[in-house]
Amino acid sequence: PAHRGTQIRLVDPSLRAISLLECTSPKFLLSCTRCKSNMDSPTLLPNVVNTRACPTCSTALSITFRPSLVHMSSQTAGYLDLDGYNVLDMLPSAWQVTCEACQKVTSGVGVLKSLPRGEVEFRVGCTSCHSKMGIRIGDVKFRRNVDEGIVLGEPLPDNGACKHYRKSYRWFRFPCCGRAHACDICHEENKGDGHEMAWANRMICGFCSREQVYSQQAQCLCGKELTRKSGGGGGFWEGGAGTRNKTLMSRKDPRKMKGLNKTVSMKSSRVGKKTE
């Protein structure tokens, strides 16, 4: 499947006498991005869009599961296309395994239902050649925003800048939809359901893609400044934190012309300097 959406990754899977592992009917614990209420996922079929309304706030919700084969070279069980949802955990699900000896498929294996994650091996017998197979899964992790191109350690497109703010090198995570956008204008232009925007509370470095708590003036752990530096970096006073050079100051700043027409006393030139 295409590498977009939310990736479902199995941590340290161990497949004994199994060539392929596939999830046929997954179950997830989800939450609404608007009201934060938790709910179980509906019955999901591969590559079928499932829509419903949130039982609490009636927000339109949509989820699509796109399965992927797990084997020795891949730990990805599939991808989720979420609209209005946040995924919290993977619940007991139905899986099918392919025997390494006879290449026959054994379906209906409740791997996560019977297997405590990371503790013991779940054993199953092949229905064709009766070979003993074993499965062990360390944990299940979700990597969000694969479609947004956010890869830790790699820069964002244009280092996070957009056409609206060319000197801002970060993206913002908006809690209203869970998506990342370069600015609030980009959010409004790209939202598809017309939901009301909530101000971002997290940001992503445009140079290394590290996500962190939002800060107006921030320096990422990679050493890069996510906004222009204060103290002369712009053309405005900004309460003393911006430029103080009136030559470089913008004409739109009222402090640029402040004091130019101020009356200067000429008394000293008329009566002489003040005696000490």
Automatic annotation (TrEMBL):
Signal peptide: none annotated. Residues 233-242 have a biased composition (Gly residues). It comes from Rhizoclosmatium globosum. Keywords: Metal-binding, Zinc, Zinc-finger. SUPFAM superfamilies: CHY zinc finger-like (SSF161219). This is CHY-type domain-containing protein. InterPro entries: Znf_CHY, Znf_CHY_sf. Residues 233-276 are annotated as: Disordered. Residues 155-224 form the CHY-type domain. GO terms for molecular function: zinc ion binding. PROSITE patterns: ZF_CHY.
